[in-house]
């Protein structure tokens, strides 16, 4: 489990929506963003691209001060492994990265050998 998010922060999630096929990605970064709505694609204001997000159930309460909802967003930056396989994350991964195949509503997701070590071709290659 990621040390950067708590499952208690995710208790009102009811769906994960992928904008890209998560099976094609070794890892995704995850963060909690403040959004105006419980559902639908949230605004994205980072470098890189959003690859998925969560939707919240009807019981999710907005922050009383801002009126905004906290929702999880999954994203990749231009220097991440999928776009730059020879870059800084050729081996290893950023702290907020988890294997997208382990993400479910209300569940942070896990760091796996695939997400932490390198491209799936290297991990899946038989040893000779």
* Overall 3D shape: elongated
Counting DSSP E segments of at least 2 residues, the number of strands comes to 5
* Class from helix and strand fractions: mainly beta
Q: What is the CA–CA distance across the termini?
A: 32 Å
Q: What is the makeup of the main sheet?
A: 5 strands, antiparallel
Give the number of helices.
Answer: 2
User: How would you state the average pLDDT, rounded?
Assistant: 88
Quaternary status of these chains? single chain
Spatial extent as radius of gyration: 15 Å
Secondary-structure element series: EEEEEHH
Task: Tell me the helix content.
Answer: under 10%
- DSSP strand (E) fraction? 25-35%
Main sheet strand line-up? 1-3-4-2-5
Low-confidence blocks of residues = 121-126
Summarize this structure as a short list of keywords or feature phrases:
mainly beta, 5 strands, 5-stranded antiparallel sheet, 128 residues
Briefly summarize what is shown.
The protein has helices at 113-117, 120-124; strands at 13-18, 28-35, 49-56, 69-76, 97-98.
């Amino acid at each position: 489990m990621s040390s950067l998010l708590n499952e208690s922060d995710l208790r009102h999630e009811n769906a994960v929506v992928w904008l890209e096929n998560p099976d094609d990605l070794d890892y995704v970064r995850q963060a909690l963003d403040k959004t105006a709505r419980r559902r639908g694609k949230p605004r994205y204001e980072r470098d890189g691209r959003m690859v998925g997000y969560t939707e919240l159930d009807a019981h999710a309460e907005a922050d009383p001060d801002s009126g905004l909802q906290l929702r999880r967003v999954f994203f990749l930056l231009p220097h991440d492994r999928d776009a730059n396989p020879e870059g800084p994350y050729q081996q290893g991964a950023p702290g907020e990265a988890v294997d997208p195949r382990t993400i479910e509503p209300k569940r942070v997701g896990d760091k796996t050998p695939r997400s932490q070590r390198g491209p799936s071709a290297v991990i899946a290659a038989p040893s000779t």
